[in-house]
Amino acid sequence: MVPDVSTGDRTRGLLSYLFGPGRRDEHTDPHIVAAFAMPGLVDPGRVPLDQHQAALTELAAYLDQPVRLREQRTRGPVPQHVWHCPVRTAPGDRYLTDAEWAEVARRIVHAAGIAEHGDDAACRWIAVRHAEDHIHIMATSVREDGRRPRNKGDGRRAQAECRKIEGELGLRRLKSGDATAPRTPTSAERAKVERHGRKDPARVWLREHAYAAAAAARDEEEFFGILTALGVKVRPRVGPETGEVTGYSLAAPSDTNGKGEPIFYGGSSLAPDLSLNRIRERFTPTEDGDQVTVAARGDRRGDAGSTWRHADTELRTAYAIVITAIDGPIGEETDRRVQAQAAAFAELLHNTAAAAPRQLRAELRAAAVAFGRANRSAIRAEHRAADALRQAGKAMLTVPGSKDGDFVTAALVSAVFLLIALGEWHAQRGHEQQAAAAHQALVRLRAAQQQSAQPALAQLTNRAPSPEETNRLAAAVQATVPEQAQRILADSAWPALATMLAQAESAGTPPRRALADLTGQRELDTADHPAEVLLWRLRNHTADRIAERARAATTRSTAPRTSAARGLDIPRGQPRSTDRDHRRHTR
C-alpha cells in the first residue's frame, strides 16, 4: 500500500480532477467513501449531472471555510493549503470495499497529523474513490481553530501506518521507506510521457544522466561538461554576494512548458544525493589522492587487461571491508566507510556499462539503475574511504569496448560478490528498500556476468586435461578445500577449472598453492558456482604473475650495462678507467 503526500493551493481544481473522468477516462464512479463529517456533506459524484459543477463549487467552499477565516485574520493568503495523499494497493492485492477504504483513510489522516481521532477542531478532509485499487485523500490544512496542523513528517508517518494496515488487511507487505528515495514523477509527468511516446519522464531521464556524469567526472567542471555533451541543459545557481556556484538545475532537451520554455529540475529534487554539495563530496581527494588516482587509472596507453584486473582487485578489497563490517560490531564510522564503498560501487557500475563489451551493456545499465536505490541511505558516506574503488571505476573509461572477455568476467564475478555483501549489509541494518534494490540489481548483474563467461567457459571445458590428470587435480581440491570440494567438483564449471589449474601449474604455480591462495570461505559459501569463482580468481592471479615476469624481463633488458658497478665506492670527480687505458697498462 503506497501513500504519496503532496501539497497545492487549488481546492476547486483538485476536486474537479478527482470527480472528473480522468485524463484518459480512467475514473469510474467517483464518490466519497469517508470524510471529516459525512452527514449533510454534498457528494459531487452522487448528484445529477446538471448539478455536478455547482456541487463541486459548494464542496470546495465548505472545505475552504477555515482557510478563508485565517486569511481574513492574517490579511494574507495561506500558502500550499491543499493537502493531497493518494493511497494505492499493490498489484495483485485483494479488492477492498468502500468501508475498508474509509477505515484506511481515517487511519492515515490520524497518523499524518491532519485529523487525529477525537479532535473536533481538526482539518476538514474527504476521501474519494474512483478506481478499484486506490483512493485520494484531500484536506485543507487549516484547523477549525485557525491553526495550521502539526503534520511534519506526514509522508513518513503515513508510510508507517500503511505497513501496519497491510498486515491487518492481509495485503502485500511493502518495504518501509526512510526518506532517501527520489521524488517520483507526478501523474502529469507520466501523462506527458504517454502523449509524446517517450520511455521515461524527464525527471527520471535527467536523474540517470546526472548519475552517469558524476560517475565519469573527476571534478565539478567536468561533471557539468559531460552533462552538456549529453544534450542536457545546465543552469548553475550563483550566489548574489559571492558569485560562486551554489547549486544547479537541469532540463531535458525536448521537455518544455506551455510557453515553449525548458522545464528545469534542481539537482536535489532529482535525488537527495545529487545536490551540488553531495556531488562535490565525491570529488574531494584523499590525502594521497594523486598517488591513488595515478595507480587506479591503469595503463593509459590502452592496456585494458591491467585496468580490468585493477578494478577486480579493488572490488575484492571493498568486499573484504563490507564483510568485516557485517561480521564485526556496528559503529557509525564503520557504516560510513561501507556506505562509501556502496557509492563508489554505484559509480563503477555506470562506468562498467560504458566500458564493457557491447553485448553486456544493456544488462549492466539496468543493474546500475537498479542499484541507484540501494546506494541511497540515511548513512552519510565517508567518500575518502572508497577513493581507490572510485578511481578504478573511472579508469575503465580509458579503455571502452574492451574485448578481453576473461578480465571483464573476472571483474564482474567480484562485482557480484560485492553486491551480495552490500545487500546483506543493508538487510542487517534494516534498510529494507536498499536491500530489495540490491537484489534487483544482482539479478541483472548476474545475467551480464553469466553472458560474459559462457564463451571462455566453453573453450576451457573443451580443452580439459586427460581423465588421469583431472583426477589428480581433483585430489588437490579435496586436500586443500575439503569443506567445499564436493560442491566444486559437482559444479558444471569444474572441467574448465581443471584446465585453468593445469595452465597455472605450467606457469609455475602448483595446484594446491593456487587453491590455498585463492579460496575465500565466505565467497564460496554464497557462490552458486564455486568452481567458476575459483577459475576467474586463478585467471587473474596467473595473468598477474605473467605480467610481473614480463616487467622484470623488460627491466633487465633495458638496464645500463654498467649497472653492476653502481655499488662501487668511486671518489667523486675521479674518472673511471676505460678499456683502452686498461689495455695500455697491461701491455
Describe this structure in words.
The protein has 587 residues and is of the alpha+beta class. The chain has three domains: 2-169, 2-Layer Sandwich (BirA Bifunctional Protein, domain 2), CATH 3.30.930; 197-282, no CATH class; 289-545, no CATH class. It is built from 23 helices and nine strands. A hairpin with a 2-residue loop joins strand 5 and strand 6 (134-140). The N and C termini lie far apart (103 Å). Residues 288-302 and 561-587 have low confidence and may be disordered.
- Poorly predicted regions: 288-302, 561-587
Q: Give the distance, in angstroms, between the N- and C-terminal Cα atoms.
A: 103 Å
Mean pLDDT: 85
What is the strand tally? Answer: 9
Number of helices: 23
Radius of gyration using CA atoms only: 32 Å
Quickly give the structural class. alpha+beta
Strand content: 5-15%
Percentage of residues assigned to helices: 55-70%
- The total domain count is 3
Note the overall shape.
elongated
Major β-sheet annotation = 6 strands, antiparallel
List the helices and strands and how they pair.
Blueprint: E1 2-3, E2 6-8, H1 11-18, E3 31-35, H2 52-74, E4 82-88, H3 98-112, E5 124-131, E6 134-140, H4 154-169, H5 187-196, H6 202-216, H7 220-229, E7 233-238, E8 245-251, E9 265-266, H8 267-270, H9 276-282, H10 289-296, H11 304-327, H12 332-355, H13 361-375, H14 387-395, H15 405-428, H16 432-462, H17 467-480, H18 485-490, H19 494-506, H20 511-518, H21 521-526, H22 530-558, H23 579-585
Antiparallel strand pairs: 1-4, 2-4, 3-5, 4-6, 5-6, 7-8, 8-9
